[in-house]
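Work Package 4 report. The design task specified in the project plan requires that, given a folded chain encoded as structure tokens, an amino acid be chosen for each position. We show below one input record used in the internal validation round.
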């Protein structure tokens, strides 16, 4: 990674940017935590984006063109994901609810839906 940047300070700066990026993605529910769970906290995600935008303002004129472009791309990507996060969260909740139904059906098979296949239906021939 150090060969991508002009010096060690630039590499460290982008390590901080990546940490904030990952934290923001975690709070938007796109990245699982260390235990595999997903979080949804748009206030925290918005704050992560705002901190990166503050970095962008405070470093104006102090980054190379490539570094400026990379920081802009990270912020832009996070903003795009932020707008889609509620739909992703809703979809994950629906999938989890469906998974619970399936799990409960296998855990309690007698309570699940059944179909009697032992006798032919009235309109079927034997």
């Amino acid at each position: 990674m150090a060969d991508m940047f002009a010096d060690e300070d630039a590499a460290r700066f982008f390590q901080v940017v990546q940490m904030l990026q990952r934290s923001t993605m975690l709070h938007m529910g796109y990245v699982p935590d260390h235990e595999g769970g997903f979080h949804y906290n748009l206030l925290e995600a918005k704050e992560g984006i705002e901190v990166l935008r503050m970095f962008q303002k405070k470093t104006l004129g102090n980054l190379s063109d490539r570094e400026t472009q990379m920081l802009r791309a990270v912020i832009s990507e996070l903003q795009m994901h932020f707008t889609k996060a509620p739909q992703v969260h809703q979809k994950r909740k629906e999938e989890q609810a469906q998974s619970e139904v399936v799990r409960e059906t296998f855990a309690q098979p007698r309570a699940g839906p059944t179909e009697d296949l032992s006798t032919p239906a009235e309109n079927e021939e034997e």
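The two ends are 72 Å apart (CA to CA). Validation will be extended to a larger panel in the next phase.
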